[in-house]
Design goal:
disordered C terminus, mainly alpha, globular, 7 strands, iron, Cyt_c-like_dom_sf, Cyt_c-like_dom, Cytochrome Bc1 Complex, Chain D, domain 2, signal, binds heme C, two-stranded antiparallel sheet
Length: about 475
């Protein structure tokens, strides 16, 4: 063997292990569709004092004696969506055990209740802060980047202390042992995680908004880049699974649309037309995040959980700050604004569908989404001009037709209108035809779908479950 090869093979092998382990940053609950964050860690910082504090909604599950910091911590836990990963289906709140599928095996989330033996009850504030900012557990091991510590590291000291107070005093201890991860050796070794962290989660930097930005804009940036970890789904990743940008200052890749996670694509949140939020105003963003629907679209897939578990609980002030920040992001391209084209609607109305896709649409979809593609208010989303249908990649549209979907339950909008799954009714080719039709009618400019793409998504798409009875309060917090 050539000396060069002999020397580089161990190095290549180590690099492969690191990249494979880093891929666990893309782990997601196998029962749902929660993703990850990989990025960089940040330090002990405080926001400029003029940033208004959030006013948390009182949590009815907290003891009446709960202090201000515990209430604030409960609110922060919602924004960070800790429950999405740390509460198993029908399991005790924050007791862990939720399986997260990753390319190298199954990772189980851990018990973060204040139980002294199985949870984090004997962790000091410093232990907690080190884990949240740098991903290093109390006993010194580095956790998988499935835990979005690179985003959480942006938390100010005050917020981190409030979160700690909540987990110590506001959460019930649960004596439930952690499950062993199901990852084969050598990938189960944790040392490459430390190397990955050093390489791809660079030195902590203070959270810094743009100089001159007003308090509302800073608050929005802090929530989106930090606790909200929006970039873990909405920012594209490089081959090491690191997010290609962690803030707007890193360039226009930030929030420019993520790759496929669990068969869903998270679209761009920047301000281009055709696929981004260019046509939305701030009020529409607020309505979408609070209720999972607005006049343009209804949330589905992975975003349903974000709305249900987390964003519906944000104060109106914080939602407005998030919307303002998102509207400040420069467009990722200069696509022209959407324009409605009435030609297809006219054909369908006259009973002359021009393609198999059009015929399928008339038979299967038009009852709810209407032949003119405008849907029906907030009950059945419009497909004409829908941002989901302006993107080159049709994965999300294919997935929702295969598996159907229910609107998320929120206190502000409790109706959970459901679209039934078509996986058992339509063939791969038929779904490709109807998806191509909706991606390219009424002025939509999305890419075409093929039967091969449908076959691929079909392998993992699970049909929507019947929604729980209306009035369910949803998981807490
Ligand atoms: C996207 C999924 C996800 C979210 C969201 C998430 N976590 Fe985690 N967390 C994990 C996983 C997975 C682990 C275990 C990683 C491992 O074993 O390497 C973990 C580990 C931890 C640990 C370390 C426990 C130990 O015993 O080492 C703490 C503490 C923790 N998370 C707190 C939180 C808090 C607080 C939040 C909300 C602000 C949160 N997590 C949100 C996935 C998540
Ligand atoms: C019974 C009424 C109904 C029928 C029939 C129906 N849908 Fe839907 N559709 C809905 C509802 C309700 C949603 C919102 C689901 C959610 O938010 O989770 C939706 C969402 C969608 C979306 C995502 C748009 C968005 O912004 O949420 C697409 C794409 C879609 N439907 C396509 C189709 C296609 C294609 C067909 C026919 C094969 C079809 N629908 C048939 C009710 C229906
Ligand atoms: C778990 C992954 C995930 C996270 C985390 C996430 N999103 Fe999403 N988001 C999605 C997916 C998937 C969609 C596409 C489905 C839909 O439109 O509901 C989406 C859609 C959206 C849309 C609608 C865009 C459109 O063009 O229709 C908005 C707005 C949005 N997300 C905002 C946010 C914000 C703000 C955050 C952070 C607080 C966030 N998301 C965090 C997965 C995620």
């Amino acid at each position: 063997m050539k000396p060069f090869l002999r020397r580089s093979i161990p190095a290549l092998a180590a690099a492969a292990v690191i990249v494979a382990v880093a891929a666990t940053g893309h782990a997601q609950p196998t029962s749902g569709s929660q993703p990850i964050a990989v990025g960089r860690a940040l330090p002990n910082v405080s926001l400029p004092p003029h940033v208004p504090p959030a006013t948390p909604t009182p949590d009815p599950d907290l003891p009446a004696s709960a202090g201000k910091d515990v209430l604030q911590g409960a609110y922060l836990a919602r924004i960070g969506d800790c429950t999405a990963c740390h509460t198993a289906r029908n399991g005790a709140l924050f007791a862990g055990g939720l399986p997260l599928a990753s390319p190298i095996g199954t990772i189980y989330s851990t018990n973060i209740t204040p139980d002294k033996e199985h949870g984090i009850g004997d962790w000091s504030y410093d232990d907690f802060a080190r884990l949240m900012r740098r991903g290093i557990s109390k006993d010194g091991h580095t956790v998988y980047p499935a835990m979005p510590y690179p985003s959480y590291s942006r938390l100010t000291d005050d917020d981190l202390r409030a979160l700690y107070a909540y987990f110590m005093q506001g959460v019930k201890p649960v004596a439930q042992a952690n499950k062993k991860n199901d990852i084969p050796w050598p990938l189960s070794m944790r040392w490459p995680l430390g190397i990955w962290r050093t390489l791809f989660a660079p030195r902590p930097e203070p959270f810094a908004g743009d100089a001159g930005a007003d308090a509302q804009m800073l608050r929005g940036a802090y929530l989106v880049q930090g606790l909200g970890h929006c970039g873990s789904c909405h920012t594209p990743r490089s081959f090491t699974m690191k997010e290609r940008a962690l803030t707007d200052r890193d360039g226009t890749a930030y929030l420019a649309g993520g790759q496929i996670v669990d068969g869903w694509t998270a679209p761009s949140l920047r301000n281009e037309h055709g696929g981004g939020l260019g046509d939305w105003n701030e009020a529409e963003i607020v309505e979408f995040l609070k209720t999972g629907r607005n006049g343009r679209t209804a949330s589905f897939g992975a975003m349903n959980e974000v709305v249900h578990d987390s964003f519906q609980y944000l104060t109106d002030t914080d939602l407005a700050a998030v919307a303002k920040y998102l509207k400040s992001l420069a467009p990722a391209n200069n696509a022209a604004p959407y324009r409605y084209d009435p030609a297809v609607a006219q054909q369908l109305y006259e009973g002359h569908p021009a393609s198999t896709g059009a015929q399928l649409y008339l038979d299967r979809c038009a009852a709810c989404h209407r032949s003119n593609g405008t849907g029906n208010g907030k009950a059945f989303p419009a497909l004409a001009g829908n941002p989901i249908l302006q993107t080159a990649d049709p994965t999300s549209a294919i997935h929702i037709v295969l598996s159907g979907s229910s609107q998320p339950y929120t206190e502000a909008a409790p109706s959970m209108l459901t679209m039934a799954p078509y996986a058992d009714i339509l063939s791969d080719q038929q779904i490709a035809d109807v998806v191509t039709f909706i991606q390219q009618s009424w002025g939509n400019r999305g890419g075409t779908a093929t039967a091969d793409q449908v076959a691929k998504v079909r392998k993992t798409a699970t049909p929507v479950e019947a929604p729980p009875p209306v009035g369910r309060r949803g998981d807490r917090p």
